[in-house]
């Protein structure tokens, strides 16, 4: 009986420590990747300023070709919205809407993953000589949920590779034209 009490007490102490430490972890999950495209910003911008255009270079749609996509709002720019649904766990379901669009410079979107939370994604375009450096960023507020804060530590590992793949796809697509 003493052994069971000790094991339970140790378990409670470990869980309490993990919860306490979680409040010292970052309150945001941040992912950012960049690539230089050998083309001017006005050649890159249309591919990030339209949810429909992202189909051609998205790193996630190849995981589940059966993903259901629905678009609403204008075809480009502010208000352009994508809703997607997939049974594949690495694709999931959600919506993404363009909430800011500065021609040839910036596109900011708001993502809603339903119960999994919300996030902001950005495409920042910087002219570099004859090319354009495209930085794809992601930021999500984790709140006070201890599990979310621990998961936030892994977000770069989970999403960073996909961002690199997507940017490589974008580069190839733009440079082919």
UniProtKB/TrEMBL annotation:
InterPro entries: Polyketide_cyclase/dehydratase (IPR019587), START-like_dom_sf (IPR023393). It comes from the Bacteria. Signal peptide: none annotated. SUPFAM superfamilies: Bet v1-like. This is Polyketide cyclase / dehydrase and lipid transport.
């Amino acid at each position: 009986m003493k052994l069971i009490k000790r094991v339970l007490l140790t378990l409670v102490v470990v869980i309490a420590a993990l919860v306490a430490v979680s409040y010292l972890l970052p309150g945001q999950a941040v992912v950012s990747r960049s690539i230089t495209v050998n083309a001017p910003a006005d050649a890159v911008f249309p591919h990030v300023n339209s949810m429909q255009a992202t189909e051609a270079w998205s790193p996630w749609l190849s995981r589940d070709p059966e993903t259901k996509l629905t678009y609403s709002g204008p075809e480009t720019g502010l208000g352009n919205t994508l809703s997607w649904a997939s049974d594949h766990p690495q694709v999931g379901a959600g919506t993404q809407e363009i909430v800011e669009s500065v021609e040839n410079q910036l596109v900011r979107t708001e993502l809603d993953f339903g119960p999994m939370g919300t996030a902001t994604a950005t495409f920042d375009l910087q002219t570099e000589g004859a090319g354009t450096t495209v930085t794809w960023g992601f930021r999500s507020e984790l709140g006070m949920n201890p599990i979310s804060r621990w998961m936030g530590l892994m977000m770069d590992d989970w999403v960073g590779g996909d961002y690199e793949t997507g940017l490589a796809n974008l580069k190839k697509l733009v440079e082919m034209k």
